Fold each of these.
Amino acid sequence: MKRKELDILVIGGGITGAGILLEAARRGLTALLVEQRDFAWGTSSRSSKLVHGGLRYLAEGRLRLTRESVREREALLRDAPGLVEPQGFAFPDYGNSARKRRSFLAGLAVYDLLAGRREVHWLDADGFRMLAPNIRSEGLAGGIRYLDAKTDDARLVLRVLDEARSHGAEARNYVAVESLLRADGRVSGALLRDGRTGAAGEVAARVVVNATGAWACGIAGPGGQGRIPRLRPLRGSHLVLPAWRLPLAQAVSLMHPLDGRPVFAFPWEGVTLVGTTDVDHADGLACEAKVTRAEFDYLMAALRAQFPQLQLDDGDVLATYAGVRPVLDSGTRGAPSKETREHLVWDEPGLVAVTGGKLTTFRAIALDTLRHVARQLPGWRADLAPRPVFSPHAVPNGPRAVVPAVLRRLAGRHGRHAQALVDAARDGELDPIPGTLTPWAELRWAARREAVQRLEDLLLRRTRLGIQLRGGGIAHMARIRAICQPELGWSDAHWETEQAAYFQLCRSHYGLPGTDTHERTHA
């Protein structure tokens, strides 16, 4: 890291930082990204996995945000097949309000117009049951269906980072910013510390970008504390169930029986995701977020109300996860869901900071941030019009027995490396791990080439087995070890230490929550 002065140093390895790194590198800037934990460790691996146009924002009158979100959703669907995929959403109508139905359908007409589509959205009761056969039938008048999209959020971050590297950028995980450097009244770089070796070094940069999301207030420039906006960290929690226990072809909206909030259940990567809550995160940002018992019970109540015949109980849940969203605080202390999801960029000499926003609009956020960066880089002129998110790459060739959908999926997640991944696979490793859509070969490739430092990196972010399999994948750990330990070069003692830490993390933060008073109070 001791080099000549960088053009831009990006702090934060989530989707916002990754997007900024890519857009800077492809426009000729020398760029380095550092992340104090693992890539996508925070919000960007704990989202609802949805790439959506923001139908709710349209209902709130935020037309600009909706237009931007729809444009970015369509770009990702076009540029990232196999990673960003269409997902139908179904809303049952129990005949409670014809006015609300008409308003919803009118909003969808505008939604279609923004996307350049035209679809039929209303289905009668029989047609709707075909989409969602397990929903509550009593009083069903019909339903509404529309299209959005879904993704693997952590793999999206990794693909964006790899695209940035293809343009000459560098990215380092487990490297923390100890402090910002200052010279002549401006930020001039940062003192970095390697979390693995403890080594420290100064890196000079013409501009430093703070893209740490919910953690943005932890880094300020000279006199910068007064410029930092108020953030309202909001926690979103999710449940993961086996697809066979809650089988869905469409995403189904569950209007919660207690407060009328929409809760979604949808098919994702061989399992069914249920979420999300939207509550103030009162436990601070120093510790990893986790689902509280009250949130767990809230989501289960929605499932039981909408799918009573399935008789779902706590034991059906494979895993849970929670993330903290970087939401701008309006100061009204109103309902969390009413806070804006728009982003904000602010700057001081040598420092640009960005927070807020949403997964779908990361490219737009990156370009907006670079407009602020450009004002601090005399002589740099670049076209900041949107470009394709990813360079096109061919679907890899594989053995005849491998279905095309698997190869398409690998192309979407691994881009230019997909063929090398397929070529590295050993016998049977292109088969999916039971209960998931993940081929064993993805484990081998991640261990070999994707900067895995901890076992949790491998099983919670490079792959998602930690939330797709009961107990974090304990039933498959022997084969996972046989594939990955030699690739990682870990000794037996090192593997066993990492494995113990990983399973403890799965129990404490990704399993079913307890019932203690603290968890009930902080829901």
Amino acid sequence: MSYLSRLLAIIVFLGTSLQVLRAAPGANVPWTTYEAENMTINGGTVIGPPTQVASRNAAVLNTIQMEASGGQAVALTGTGQYVEFTARSNANAIVVRYCVPDTTDGTGTNSTISLYLNTNFVQKLPVTSQYSWRYGAYPFSNNPDSGSPRNFFDEVRLIGLTLHAGDKVRLEKDADDTAAYEVIDLVDLENVAAPLAAPPNSLSITSYGADTNGVNDSTAALQNCINAAGGKTVWVPPGTYLITGTINLPSHTTVQGAGMWYTTLLGSASLYNTTPSRRITLNGNGSNIHLSDFAITGFLNYRNDSEPNDGLGGSYGIGSTISRIWVEHTKTGAWLVNASGLVVSDCRFRDTIADGCNLCVGMQNTTVTNCTARGTGDDCFAIWPATYTGQNYTPGYNVITHCTGQAPDLANGGAIYGGVSNRIEDCAFLDMPYGCGILIAGTFPVGANVFAGMTVAQRCDLSRCGGYDPGWQWRGAVTLCPQYLNITNVNLNHLNITNSLSYAVQIVSPGSSSTVGVLSNATMNLINISTYGMQVPPYQASPYTNGVYGVWARSDAYGSLNVEGLTVNGASIGSIPALGSALSNQSSGLPQHFAFNFLPAPGITSSASGNSLQLSWPAIYTGWTLQVQTNAPGAGIGVNWDIVPGSTAGNRMSIPVDNTVGSVFFRLIDL
């Protein structure tokens, strides 16, 4: 009997907390989102979802609605037009995601939109197109003559409101709101807690001359306070602080603000696009660095990959944390190198020129958790073990967990480009018009940091992903792309893929036959696919069956994928490969063809009880052996399978739960 025929199931259990077994994918956020298309609309026009067009890709490219949340928004074009909704809970802060038109020279313009509460005028919200609208091919320009516009949306936020549940919130285009149109995508309402107080044993930057009104330059004041802190917390009180250069963070630095809504490090609009040295960069340069509770707001309006990143950057060594920081209008939100054990939590990355959060050179055992990224200009969250500078740590064992990525104007929700035993888990990725929800790829240079250990994507929700990128063509909501690297030991499990714009799962490997990578020892287990091909004509609720598939191995795919428990549009795809639109293997004429290996699943079930996990499986498998892979803290998920210790009774087993353990993979096998 072959090994594959004896391997019957893999199930997954997250042991860090029994409650996580019941948690929904994505970040747990403190705001409530209201979609414009679901509001009361007075005179405005709902745009999207796209209608049928002759060109196969025109619907997803270069249209405002395809970068909108849910593929729909509301355009206000005339005086007195508005959208209005009822607040479901108390709030004191608002975020509006909007689009206003660019100018003919591409420099953008400023306008306003009017905010009303219970029909009473509150104030004007400033809106602008100076930091949106890019054109042409990657890395894009600000020249409308280049065509192919993208990056349509920006956001405005305001705190200090008094909103009660049941209040009517209105956004109206009044006569003095001068933009030709104002497209409203969504509104977030949040009830923000009071500002934090100065922590004990802290040193305030105001004692070094910082200006809380954002008028006088506070760069030197912040740096001098950090240099003098001597182990004390650097306290940044409520206020706006003008920062016009890099802030260096040596070891044992702690910088705390009063909260991301109250403390803002603000760039200079006049200097920001003149030279990278005049931008805001918090540059880590050591270990035991802790940043929390403030916002970074830049003014970057173009992309140049040869220039250094602004926002959060540098090396964070051992024992560092980055918590509750809001970053927008910078090149990247966080571009991090050379850290081991870093925790990035509860951050918001908005409207960046490139990535939201990228774990890059020498990142090891780092956790990015409960963070959100919206409107980024590249991957929302990425693990890319590049080697453009020296590595202090072997890259791997990183995890992006319980995060939400939405509506980038390029690339993907979550991406892994190499390294040892990296994971994306319990995340939600939505509205990816130009890329994948999850991409595992050997596309970019990583030196010797090839895929090793077990690369995992699990327990994620992917909605409206798998769009069209001119350089890569149609992408799947999940894409496996070895390309220049062999990718081995991959586990995709418990993924819920809905309303994919094209393919739900795609295996491709572009490149010449002498350099193309191979996918091997990869398992896709308990994947639920519901509706795909949504933005490929003729745009119908059921799948488009003429050339778009739920699971697709393209002609250039190499290697194999083990498939267990695959459901496509409610139909279980079992041991016999499906025909038609559900699954297609088009690999041909290659030195190594691609193969789907369908494995029967015996139906292992699990339930948590106290500090133990109860496992059971059909009686016909009595006597088979249960095996486990565990990622002990700091060790990552292993490759070797071990016998599960515990109490076995026929076809049942009870095992203790170690709440310090991360992901645990079980399988049943006839040895």
